[in-house]
Amino acid sequence: MEFTQLTLQELLDLQKDLQSQFDVIKQANLKLDLTRGKPSAEQLSLSNSLDSILDAYFVLQDGTDVRNYGGILGIMEARILGSKMLGTRPDEVLAGGNSSLALMYQLINFAHLHGLQGPGTSWQAEAQQQQGQVKFLCPVPGYDRHFTICEFFGIEMINIAFNDDGPDMDKIEALVATDPLIKGIWCVPKYSNPTGHTYSDDTVRRMAALGNSAGANFRVMWDNAYVVHHLTDNPPRLLNIMEECRSKGTEDNLIITGSTSKITFAGGGISFLCSSRANIDALETHLTASVIGQDKVNQLRHVLFLKDQQHLLDHMQKHKQILRPKFDHVVKVLDAELAGKGMGSWTDPKGGYFISFDSLPGLAKKIIALAAELGVKLTPAGATFPYRQDVEDTNIRLAPTFPPIDDLDQAMKVFVVSVQLASVQQRIQQL
Q: Mutual orientation of helices 76-86 and 296-306 as an angle, nearest 10°?
C-alpha cells in the first residue's frame, strides 16, 4: 500500500516505529561511504600482474624505446587497443595518461580559448563577437566532473532531461538550430552516470547528425567511460557513433573519450581520446607546448596485459563477477523495503557503476542528511546537476562498487530507513 493512503494516526505510528529503528542504528556508530564509484580492492587486484609484466622489455617492434621522450599521441600499440575498445581507427586515437577527464579538460581548454580549427575559431572569440556566452547542453542527472569543467571556464550549462532512450533529442535539436553559441553536449552513452541509460540507435543517429545543424565548431563530447562495464550476460548494444558521423560528414564534431581506469588500476591506467584526423592533428600540435611525451612504459604494460579486445572482455567478466552481487543486493533491498510504497523510484542498471534513486520532491537533501547522521556518507544532493542545483531536490546517486557487501548491506538498511522516515515526516506535515 502506498503510504499516502494511510491515515494521520497510522502515519504517526509508522513514524514512531521508524524513529525507533533510526535510534537503534545510530548507536552502532557506523562509518560507511557510498559517495564515489571507485573500484574495490578486489577489482584492483585483478590487474596486479601489471607490475611485473614488462620483464625489462622496453623496445617496441619499430625500435621505439618506451623509456625515453617522445610520442605525444602515445604508442601505436596502445592506440590500436583504444580503437578496438571505442570503435574508431588507430590513427584517430590519442593514448594518454591515467585520466580521460584530463583529456576532456585539455580539449575543452583548446576549443574554448584557442580554437580547434585555427586562429580566430575559439568558442570564446565567437561569443565575444556575438556579445553572448558559450553554452553547453547537459543531460541530467549527469556526471558532476563534466559540469565542473564547464563551470571552470564560465560556460553556461543548459539542462536536458532523459527519456527512456537517452537525452531529449527533440529539445536538443531545437536548441542547437536556434542558438549558435551552444558549442557542445556532454554524453555518457553507455550506462549513463548515474541513471544507467544506454542510448538507442535513433538517439545515436540523431546525435551524430547534430554537427550539420549546429555548425563546424560544435562538439559532441562522447564520454564512453563504461563501454565494456557490463553487469549482465546480454548487455544492450550501443550503435557506433563514429561510423554514423562518417556517413553524415560530421567526424570533426565528435570527441570520444574512455580509459582503463575501472578496468585495471584506477590511479594508474591509460586514457583515450578519439576523433577525426583533423582534430587529432590539431590537438597534437596544441599539446606540444605542454607535453614531451606520454607515459609509454605504462601504455606498454597495458598492451601486454590486456592484449586485445577479446582478452579485455574476458578480464571484464571477472569484474562483473565481483560487482553483480553488489548491484543485485542494492536493488533487492530497495524492492523489498520500498516497492509499492510510493516513496521513490530507482534504476536497475545493466552495467556501469551507479544506481540512481529519485525520492519524492524536496527530500533528497533531507534523506542524505539523515543517512549522514547514522554514519553513511552519500553523494551530496544536487551533485548530478549543473551548478549543484537539483530544482526538484529528488536525485540521489548510489555507488555500490567500493564497499564489501556486508558494509553495503548496512548502508542500504540506513538508506531505506532514512527514505521512509523523511517521506513519512513530509506527509505528516502536509496533512
A: 50
